[in-house]
Design goal:
Order of helices and strands: EHHHHHEHEHEHEEHEHEHHEHEHHEE
Oligomer: single chain
CATH class of the largest domain: Alpha Beta
Distance between the termini: 27 Å
Strand content: 5-15%
Strand order of the largest sheet: 3-2-1-4-5-6
Number of domains: 3
Number of helices: 15
Radius of gyration: 25 Å
Shape: elongated
Number of strands: 12
CATH topology of the largest domain: Rossmann fold
């Protein structure tokens, strides 16, 4: 059984994911509503508990607007302020509590050296009260909310946390569909936790769902477990070998190569990842095909492919990049692994990974690159690879089709 957690960071939603918000939210909201209705001189029905819980996880003013559509915008703002004030009083009195499994999951993630962040659709005053009451800063090194500088929504929070942690090897954990949307918009996987207050249909399209946080780290380990199965299938450990990892852009091949190397090392072997991109010419030369025009194949063979024959016994070299299906490279590899991703999936990841930082003009460059790769694969079919993985999921995080559907070419 694999013990690795192949992630650098885990980002958590707050209410309904880490914190048992119902312990203080319902009494605070009811008290605030009574105060506001008296002040506004309006006769409105106090919502039932389930109705209050249904807006947990939404931006507060947005959720209150759903509950009370007849109130004016300024009245909603006042009601929201009263809710926060009442919540903070209860939090200061010790009303906060972590949800089942939260402490255990946070302890294990921190012990594994994984960066922990919090992204919440709340204001800074409320966030600070919750963090202080539960001493969440023992685990979470970074927290973001709607009041954080430069933040418009949760997608911005996740983007900022990924930049701060300097990784894309991350996962988002939350209880509402908005958490999933924010994860998708940043091209990272989403774990839906059912301890929250969402409708039962939320989480159906998540990468996987868990009943509570007790199961989080075990489910995250599924990636390592299934990738260990890939290594066993390819039989590249314990001998001199060159493993090629290829696929279209944004298919997940770079992350996969890195994770495979880490697993080999953890299993007592030696492994190194080399990117084909490091052999790209600064200025393309005139050649009959784009591979030899854009890449220095002679240097690749001289520095990587040929020296590997004399490498230390048991050392695994992982060459990662596009165009490895070309026979000039493929014939030099011990095994070749192809990560299969549709153009639509690749473009979705480009939008979340590259366009958020570099602007939408990069999407046209991505489309042209993917078109070139499609033409390349029309000549050199992925079926030439020794193993094909479905890149449509994040490699075995849940029960959805993934590494269980590996197929031998």
């Amino acid at each position: 059984m694999a013990s690795s957690l192949l992630f650098d960071a885990v980002i958590f939603d707050l209410d309904g994911t880490l914190v048992a918000t119902d312990r203080y939210w319902i009494p605070a909201a009811r008290s605030a509503a009574r105060r506001a209705f008296a002040e506004f001189d309006v006769q409105l029905k106090i919502p039932e508990n389930r109705e209050w819980l249904a807006i947990v996880g939404l931006p507060l003013e947005h959720g209150l607007g759903q509950l009370f559509p007849s109130l004016a915008i300024e009245q909603i703002k006042s009601l929201a302020a009263y809710c926060v004030e009442a919540e903070e009083e209860l939090l200061s009195a010790g009303g906060a509590a972590l949800l089942p499994g939260a402490r255990e999951a946070l302890d294990e993630l921190k012990a594994a050296g994984i960066s922990i962040g919090i992204a919440s659709n709340c204001g800074s005053s409320y966030l600070n009260h919750v963090v202080s009451s539960l001493q969440l800063d023992r685990w979470a090194s970074e927290v973001r909310c709607l009041d954080s500088p430069g933040i418009r929504d949760k997608s911005d929070m996740i983007e900022d946390l990924l930049l701060t942690f300097d990784t894309r090897r991350a996962v988002m954990v939350g209880d509402r569909y908005g958490d999933e949307e924010s994860a998708r918009s940043n091209a990272i996987p989403h774990v839906h936790v059912r301890t929250g207050y969402a409708h039962h249909t939320e989480g159906e399209t998540a990468d996987f769902a868990i009943e509570d946080l007790f199961d989080l780290t075990n489910r995250l380990r599924l990636r390592a477990t299934r990738l260990e199965g890939v290594l066993d299938e390819l039989s590249v450990e314990g001998r001199r070998a060159i493993l090629g990892v290829t696929g279209r852009r944004a298919s997940g091949k770079s992350l996969l190569a890195r994770d495979l190397a880490q697993l080999v090392i953890e299993r007592g072997g030696q492994a190194e990842v080399i990117e084909l991109a490091s052999f790209k010419r600064e200025v393309p030369i005139e050649r009959e095909d784009s591979l030899s025009s854009d890449y220095d194949l002679d240097r690749l063979k001289e520095e990587v492919l040929r020296p590997s024959d004399a490498s230390a016994s048991g050392s695994l070299l992982i060459l990662e990049g596009a165009f490895l299906l070309d026979p000039r490279i493929a014939t030099q590899l011990t095994r070749l692994l192809y990560v299969d991703a549709t153009v639509d999936l690749s473009m979705t990841r480009f939008r979340g990974r590259d366009a958020r930082l570099s602007g939408t003009t990069i999407l046209e460059v991505a489309r042209e690159a993917l078109a070139a790769e499609e033409r390349f694969e029309a000549r050199f079919a992925p079926a030439r690879a020794d193993l094909i993985l479905d890149g449509g999921v994040f490699f075995g995080l849940g029960a959805a089709p993934g590494l269980d559907e590996t197929q031998k070419a």
